[in-house]
Amino acid sequence: MLSIPYGVRRLATAATLAGAIMAPWSGALAQMSFPMMPGGGGMMGMGGSCVDYVKSGLAITDAQKGPWDAYAAALKNTPSGLTAMKDGMMTAYSGGKTTVEQLDAQITAAENRLKALKELRPTAASLYAALNADQKKKADQMLGMCAQ
What we know:
- With about 150 residues, this protein is mainly alpha-helical.
- It has a domain at about 50-148.
- About 70% of the residues lie in helices and about 0% in strands.
- The chain contains 7 helices and no strands.
- The protein has helices spanning about 5-20, 25-30, 50-60, 65-75, 80-95, 100-130, 135-145.
């Protein structure tokens, strides 16, 4: 008879419970398109988006429009962290995959996320360089919000 170590059983139980607890929320998380406001201020207003929120908060000028547009376009092509993570986890644990196949799916999801962030970085750096000192202070708090 196969004996499963106690620690492995506890880990499997914890993972199962976490999945069961999160299952009802997976649909709601997939539909979230607005970031949480800093300081726990709740969701952004109806009809807004993270890109609009950040652009307004930074008070992008006409002279900064080029770097901003490049950043916003790159950001829109970057899968959100939650979506990428959810999709990777759904792939990893669907269809009775082996442990090795689950790990491969998780690695692929992490690699895809890293690739997207690397593609976003040059446009973020160009935008940051175009900002004034006050905008940079705000950007340090806001720019990462949309890329998460």
